[in-house]
Structure formats: C-alpha cells, structure tokens
Amino acid sequence: MSPPRDNAPESWEGDRAMRIAVVTTSYPSFDGDPSGHFVEAEVAALAAAGHEVDVIRPTAGRAFGWPGFAARLRERPSRSAEALGWVARARRQIARGMFDHVVAHWALPSAWPIALAHPPHRTLETVSHGGDVRLLRALPRPVRARVVSVILARGRWRFVSEPLRDALATSLPPRLAATLRERSWVEPPHLGIAHDVAPAARARRGAFGEREVYVSAGRLVASKRVESAVAWVAERARAARELGVTAPKLVVVGDGPERARLASIARALDVDADFVGATTRPEALSWIGAADALLFASRAEGLSTVVREAEALGVRVQRV
C-alpha cells in the first residue's frame, strides 16, 4: 500500500493478516482489461502484504461495465433491475462474510448501501474516484448530507485528489464538511503498470516517422470533452498546411456512445484521426507512450489515471 497520508488509518494495516473485502463496480474481467485496473493493483498490493482478499463485483457486461453505468442505463433502462439485484446480493455477501475490513471503491453504491451491511464494530474504508462525488452532488441536499453522514459514521474516507474532496465538502453543511475533512485523507490510487510497453511504443512511434502524433485515451462520453482534443489538432493541422508541412495525426483510444459524433467532427474539421476503439490496457499504454503528447480535455476528473500514466511514461500532457 502507499504510505498513509494525513488522517489515514494505520491500525488495520499492521502485521496481522486479515480477511478483507474489496467492493467495486469496476474491475478487470480478462487479462489486460482496463476497467478498474487501479482497484486490481490495490488488491494485488493487499494480497502481497499477506491479507486474504475477496473481491465483490458485478458480472461484467451487465448493468456495470464499459463505458460506464450511466451510459449503459441510458442504452437499456431495464439494467436498473440488474443493478439492484447485484446490490442486494453484494450486501448479503458482506453481511455473511466475517470480514475484518471492507474497502468500498466508489461511495455509491459500493459504500452506501452495500458496505453498510458490514458489522458496525468492523472497519470500513470508502474510496472516491470522481463519478461517485458527482453523483452525490447531484442528489438533493438533505439526501446528500444523510448519505455522507451515514458513511462517515461507519469509517473513514479516502479521496484520490484534494479537489475531489473539496468538491464534496463544499456541497455539505459546514459542520458535516468539517467532519468529512477530519475523517478523510487524500491518496492517489495504484497505477500498476506491470507491462514493459516501451518496445511496442517505439514500434508505433517508428511507423509515423517525423510526423507529430497526438493521443486521446479514455471513454468516449460527453464529460471527457474529446471534441476539444479534435479541435486542438485541427488548429495544428491548419498551421501545418499553411507552412507546407505534414499535418499531425490524432489517435483516439477508447470507445463509447460519442464515437460516431466525434468521428464526424474530425471529418468536418479535416483532421487525420484514427479511432482505434477499446483496447487492452497494455495496448492503450503503448499508444500513449508513442505520442508527442497526450491530449486531455476532461473537466470532471477526480484524479486522471490516464494523465498519471502519461507522466509515468515520460509523455507530455497537453490540456486542451
């Protein structure tokens, strides 16, 4: 595990091996699956520390999965019943599991209501990554305050970034906001880059010669604002043509409901763009590693994993 930050609980991470449940709505379902890879990395770290870890997660491809619960629910509203069924089953697993500690990735629904089935005298740790905080902030103020109060009464809260914690705190009554800050800490998630992607990245880079290559990676949903990346490359392409040099290439890694619209925008702006679709995580990392810069446009991230991955690979991040 990463070194504890201010307010981080240290007692449960001692020498004693424990039985830990990790509740998550996103987790890899095959080797290289990018879904919830940071949760998988944390599970591996806990197991390496000698703990017995049970991962409680929904079946891939149903209510939860790529490109996100909200998009999948819009596509098929009946998936709400699947989600409620999994929540009920997960609560039963928690209630019967005799776990020493529960880590709930995403406050909703992993902490509330699932992990609240954990006996009150056992420890509960809630981890917020971004989407759950946006969902909490969208709730009516009294409901939001009640949910936050219940979660805090049962344990401590980990946020992946300070701005994410601030966003939730400022939406709460002052006394509850102070309690949240007292019982929470900030700690970036595990990156878990176990693959050597350098050879694949060099091969991809070599295929483009001296041409500039820019990469956008992530779910193709409205909140990611990938159209801003397309527009940014379009400006670079116009400048290149005026100078009589080769226009840059845009590679969009990922899939989602915005893909057709984004491809149409790229064509309209005369951007040479390849939409490579959903890939394994090593493939996505090799594309990022091959880029002159990673283009990042989202304004709704708690702490962007893809930005941290680019920085770890030594690739410049261009915010657009």
Structural summary, described in words:
This protein is of the alpha/beta class. The protein has two domains: 11-186, 3-Layer(aba) Sandwich (Rossmann fold), CATH 3.40.50; 198-319, Rossmann fold (3-Layer(aba) Sandwich), CATH 3.40.50. Helices cover 44% and strands 16% of the residues. The protein has helices at 37-48, 69-75, 79-96, 107-114, 131-138, 141-154, 162-169, 174-182, 198-207, 226-243, 259-268, 281-290, 305-312, and strands spanning 19-24, 52-56, 101-105, 123-128, 155-159, 184-186, 213-217, 249-253, 273-277, 293-296, 317-319. The strands form two sheets. Strands 2-1-3-4-5-6 form a six-stranded parallel β-sheet, with helices on both faces. Strands 9-8-7-10-11 form a five-stranded parallel β-sheet, sandwiched between helices. Helix 10 links the parallel strand 7 and strand 8 (249-253). It starts with 18 loop residues before the first strand and ends with a strand. The model has no long low-confidence stretch (mean pLDDT 90).
If helices are DSSP runs of H or I spanning 4 or more residues, what is the number of helices?
A: 13
Straight-line distance between termini: 33 Å
The CATH topology assignment of the largest domain is: Rossmann fold
Largest sheet: number of strands, sense, barrel closure: 6 strands, parallel
Q: SSE string, helix = H, strand = E?
A: EHEHHEHEHHEHHEHEHEHEHEHE
